[in-house]
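The protein record filed here:
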Amino acid sequence: MMPTGWCPTTDTLTGTLTTYPGTSCVRIFFPPGDGLPAAAWTNPRHRLAQAPADADVIVSHKDPDVDAAAFVAAWQATGRTGRLILVPHHEPEQQTGGDPTPAVFRRSWTRTRTQVGDHPARHDGRLRLAVCWTLQWIRRVDAAGRRVNDWRTWWPEHEADAVDLVLGDWYPYDPKARNPFRPAGYEDPAAALAIMVELSRATGKPWGIAEINHPRITTAGGFPTDLDADGSRCADWYRRMHAWAKANGCQLWTHFHRDEGDLAQRAPEQQALRDLIAREAAAPRRLAPALETLRAELTRRWPGTDRTLVDARHHADHRANSRDTIDALDVNVTGVDIDALLAAFQRHPSAAQWILGGTAARADDGWTRRPYPGTDPGPGRLHLGIRATDQAERDERPWGLAADDSATDAKRFLALLKDPAVALQLRALPWQYVGGGIPKGMSTLGVLNEIVQTVRTIGEAVARQAADPAPVRAALARLPEPRADADPGVPADVNPAPAVPADVDVLADAVAARVLAALPADAAGLSREDLTAALRAALADLVP
């Protein structure tokens, strides 16, 4: 899901919600002098209080000296389930209407980070801090096609760790047109939004669209041609822009529904926006494959028809992301060994955080338990969230919870061998070379020893995750050691050890046989041949 909505019109917010049912994102702007009033969350006449409780709300303001802590506390007290995206200073580069100097802008970010940077809601993804720039300003070029403005002027590099999101306000701009702001055609989505992908890569932050509008291209609207008298082309452009944005990482999208962007008299464009909002609201929600694996293990270990809950409202993780994937589930902990469950959960590489009874812990914080003042997932429920990346979502390695998982060591071993990160580490061994011969300063003994040590490292990783690590460690203890006298110039009576073959394929067979001897004959349907082949391939791939 890509939260989609609008910036309010001059109409009431409730009236706009009637026009666009299913709105999942609203942007509220506080102009210069308004500050950031905490009371706006509860004042029934204010648009902020009228926004849907489950919608994301982008709040931007122009004043540097605001009380962000009180504003965030008031938001949290409402019990809203949507996210708050807070923009410490809206479009600072415009230099109109109270815009700051770069120094003041940076101090404003430091103030915001100090006040709410470590807020628990920010750590769990419900509160996000964002910069927001006008893309026409960033895209502007001179006669030679060189950009005349530098976005870094308005980038809080000293507080970069506090920036969660880069937002852009998109409006037409074509430097080749006689009037760059009134081009003769609708820009291709890839070209129009390439700047956002560029900014995302340069800053290392995800991106979104906080404002967007394109007037119809007609002479009455100040354009050089009557290209789109009925608005059908503009409506199609909106659909294509939205689709391209979602496919390329856009986190949220809000149409600027004011002034030229008011669609009350633009029926085709209004229908396009209504359709986009409705489609996102009805997007199929799919539990991440990694969590499907966890869910199956949970119900096998602790059966119950209501053991897990996916469609919860208390946390942003439960909302489908731009891949329409849900990255969290809640567990009914009645009759569950919570310590065993948390221990298994925290070992998995996809795990990100858990919340239980006012306590929370995060992988990025070393699983340190801290108070959680947010909305509780519910009495007797444990919130489990995974990392919001495609790789983490697709990781279907066992979590080690199922009662019949006593024979999963071999599956873990195979998963480790196929893990790209493990393969990268193997290829980085110091004896790897291009061409023939052993590298200078490295002996045959050293080469074989590296192989054995690598297998030990992988095996230890398996043992740490195994319910009973003893068999794996026993197999590792029987691994062959390189003979000292296999190395030219080393006396045979120094550190005597069993002989080991110099051929890597033969060594792989020997290692596989010894490790497999300690594993069950049938490891959850995994054949011994598959595991042997995987181990041989991993070791053989280490040499050219």
In short: Residues 404-409, 429-439, 482-502, 522-526 have pLDDT under 50 and may be disordered. The first helix runs from residue 13 to 19. The chain has 18 helices and 16 strands.
